[in-house]
């Protein structure tokens, strides 16, 4: 039998870039040994357009990592891909232990129960994959509520939990592409919103309530944590790509040149520093030289970013208003992560929109199992999702399960305050 190393490759398949890290597992945590990023080809907001191109792009990331660290034995591929069908919902299940006598609950019984969560009943029009399970409480024989049923006896076992899901359609294609690269190696999927949240937040923020806003190229995902677990997730399709599109349209340049301007000189502010500085760029023909004042560039970026954040807030509200999410008392934080969070001025613009305490989040700003590695990974919000696949505390395999008294009153008031309705 081969020795388990616990080493893994993690891939974050975004619509703008594919991120990858190689991690070594140790008894105390993880160490990032290599990392790479490549511009995505073959996949956009509408899905996979060219599986061959996407596969080549993933292979380029893996090759780059290999060139940094040499031969690397790993036994698992952890994957997050962008999609607009991610969700978190509350559900419950019951398992009859099929016995006259009470049965001792062990890991296998528990896993059988948790595996039932989120499985659609009846005719499946839109098959859903359950990625993570966060149990809130268990009930033995319909009466006894516990946080950990292991080693207790019962005839019936029920669970109440939050489940993070995604439509299986895109995941199935991605699995197929990845199997063409790594063969039979286990491939484990993660919800990027949940992963980014666990990487970037502190334990206190997850306990007391915090919104993690992952600003991606095509999608902005808002995940709300409270009582230590993610309880709501909303995806807005108005992503950062609209900032780049606007710059390209207003200043008459190509998308790659607009992206260069945004990344190198952009500032989400009406009055950016060095507002009168001139920035050179090429027109649509790639030859004609043009100039723009930093103030003009920043104004276009600011206007669109505000709209993107407003939309994320609205989409989150629509998802919150139909649910009965338990809420602890404040203060609550707003944590920005993903590539869009690197744009200077985003925190201030977000504070205007969300009217709360806002900060940028990366793997170093969160509290979780120790992850060591280069600053270029741990301090970069672009890698939050990758690191989050190492730090996500999905309790599918039974770990400590906190149970808190739920406080429903005041939730809408809180949202009003936060979102400024
Ligand atoms: N330093 C930077 N300054 C400004 N913008 C940046 C910077 N780095 C990346 N971006 C932009 O942030 C956006 C999001 O990047 P990210 O890598 O998170 O997207 P993605 O994961 O590919 O997208 P999605 O998850 O929506 O499919 C991109 O449009 C990218 O151009
Ligand atoms: Mg992304």
Q: What does this 3D model show about the protein?
A:
There is one protein chain. The protein is of the alpha/beta class and 421 residues long. It folds into two domains: 79 residues, Dna Ligase, domain 1 (2-Layer Sandwich); 222 residues, Nucleotidyltransferase, domain 5 (2-Layer Sandwich). It has a six-stranded mixed beta sheet, with helices on both faces. A five-stranded mixed beta sheet has the order 16-15-14-19-20, with helices on both faces. Strand 17 and strand 18 form a beta hairpin. It is globular, with a radius of gyration of 23 Å. The site of magnesium ion (MG) has 7 residues, from loops. Adenosine-5'-triphosphate binds next to helix 6 and helix 7.
Summarize the structure in short.
With 421 residues, the chain is of the alpha/beta class. The protein has helices spanning 51-69, 107-116, 168-182, 192-200, 203-208, 241-250, 255-265, 294-321, 346-354, 375-378, 384-391, 411-419; strands at 8-13, 17-26, 29-39, 43-44, 47-48, 76-81, 87-96, 103-104, 128-140, 144-146, 153-154, 156-167, 187-189, 210-215, 220-226, 229-236, 278-282, 289-293, 333-337, 357-360, 371-372. It has a six-stranded mixed β-sheet with strand order 13-6-1-2-3-21, with helices on both faces.
> Which runs of at least 5 residues are low in confidence (pLDDT < 50)?
397-409
Classification by helices and strands: alpha/beta
Main CATH class of the largest domain: Alpha Beta
Largest sheet: 6 strands, mixed
The radius of gyration is 23 Å
Widest sheet: strand order? 13-6-1-2-3-21
Q: How does the overall form come out from the CA principal axes? A: globular
Number of domains: 2
Which molecules other than protein and nucleic acid are bound?
adenosine-5'-triphosphate, magnesium ion
| Content of β-strand | 25-35%
Looking at the overall shape, the CATH architecture of the largest domain is 2-Layer Sandwich
CATH topology of the largest domain: Nucleotidyltransferase, domain 5
End-to-end separation:
60 Å
- Total of helices: 12
Helical amount among residues, as a percent range? 25-40%
CATH superfamily of the largest domain: ATPase, nucleotide binding domain
- The protein's oligomeric status is single chain
Tally of DSSP β-strands: 21
